[in-house]
Design brief:
The protein is mainly alpha-helical. It is built from 20 helices and no strands.
Amino acid sequence: MASRKQLLVRSFLTFLVLLSAGILGFNRQFYTEALDDAFFALALASVVILHQRIRPSWLDAALTGAGTVALGVVDFHFLHYPPKIMAWFSFLGLSSLAILALRSIWNQDRRRLFYTCIPAAAFVISDYFASNMLEWTARAHPKTLDLYLLSFDGSLRAQLAFGAGQLYARFPTLHISALIAYIGLAIPITTILAGRLVRFKEGAFAAMLAFLITGPAGILFYNLFPACGPHNMFGPNFPFHPFPIADLQRLLLEPAAFQGPRNAMPSLHLAWTLLAWWYSRGLSWAERFIAFGFLAMTAFATLGTGEHWFVDLVVAFPFALLMYALCAYQLSWRDPRRMAAILAGLGTTLAWLVTLRYGAKLFWASPIVPWVLSAATIAFAYIGQAKLDRTTDAREMTSAARGRVSWFRFDSAVARPE
């Protein structure tokens, strides 16, 4: 039985949760800035995946639906906000998050629900503030380095972003499916995180941490190499009027002012879906299929939308390795294999940024050079991640074996007659 003090605390926390949900759901500024935004709405709605995966309940589903309808009725009928389809997704996610928080307050299994509620809220909060960080980066860097990235893509003798953009424009079905994958980034993240919470419990912490720190870490690299992608650089000329490859080698490379968010180098969308694919190891085939499907479609969508150059995707691989190694908490910081993966990911990422800025002539020596360097970087990241997984698995098996020996000795001591 809970004490009177515990009941008062839980009641007060319940009041705070409901008050917060009401403030966010009925605030006009928050509605126009976030709730009707497609990226934010799907990020918020993905909370339902975590909620129903960790605590599947028809009652919770019904309460979530009721909360969604209530928010919609108040906002559209009484407050007269402009009705937007994406706002319904936001209402759904906000209702689910509130119910999940209430369950973590009152349910006996509070610990697991608490560890579900906290990352869900953190993902939503980080997504909301991401636009502010991008605006700050744009103000801090009025000029971008897109000409250097254009030069590299041209050195491949195939401007892949423009090719993907043309396919994107000519095939509506491909366009829609890839765009959904791009906007619905939170879906593979929450799917894999929920799967790991169910199967590995505390073992999901590494994935949770990696997904959370990738955004802030990416902002740092956006400031090291500000770029806004071919769509913002070429405007209406993208994707059907690329710069002639024959002229790219003579292009004067210098920082230039272009409109658009400085969020191209490296591609965080690809890094996040790559992490989701890596962390899907050991989960069901359905969860792995979702992770790989989003990885493939995101790789295409990042190019097809013109948000990224091809080299942005290449550099996302060592950057993802860096995030993966930083969050491999099962290994000590002094473990040479973990430190090697951290240094490899960071060193390769920085090496690409430096070479792209100051070594453009290297890439134009032969088309073989940029292709081999790109393929080697991707393979290097995969090998580094696989080695780290083997090291982590070996450490966990050793710890488990020691635990079994300890329990065997304890049981033997207990069973030994006096």
